[in-house]
Known about the structure:
The longest helix has 84 residues, at 64-147. Helices cover 91% and strands 0% of the residues. The protein is mainly alpha-helical. The chain starts with 8 loop residues before the first helix and ends with a helix. It is built from 2 helices and no strands.
Amino acid sequence: xAKFIFKLQSILDIKLKLESQxxxxxxxxxxxxxxEEGILQMxxxxxxxxxxxxxxxxxxxxNIREIRENKQSIDIMKSKIRAQMxxxxxxxxxxxxxxxxxxxxxxxxxxxxxxxxxxxxxFKQEVAYEENQAVNELxxxxxxxxxx
Length: 148
C-alpha cells in the first residue's frame, strides 16, 4: 500500500515549534506580570503602614522629626508606587503582545493541519480509486479469462 507523505510537513513542524516557543514566551510574560503586581501590592501595603504610623504620631506626643520622616517615607512610597504602576502596565502590554503572537501562530499551525487533513483525505480517495481499478481489472480479467 502507498504511504502518505505530506509535502508541507517540514513547514508544519516549524509551525509547531513556533507555537511552542510562543506558549513559553506567553508564560514568561504572565509570570513577570504576576511578579510586578506582587511588588506593587507590597509597596501599597508599606505605604498603608506608613500612613497608619502617621495617624499614631499625630495622636500621641508630637515629635516633629518623626512626623517629617514618616511624611517623606509616604511620599517616597507614592513615587515608587507610581513607577511600579508603569512597570505593571508595560508588563500587561507584553502579555497582550505575547497573547496576540501566540494566537497568530496557533492560527497558522491550524491552517497547515487542515491542509494536511485535506491532503490525507485526497490520498485516501486516490488509494480507494486505485484499489477499485485493480479490483475491476481483476474481475474483468477473470470474467474474460473464464469466457474463453
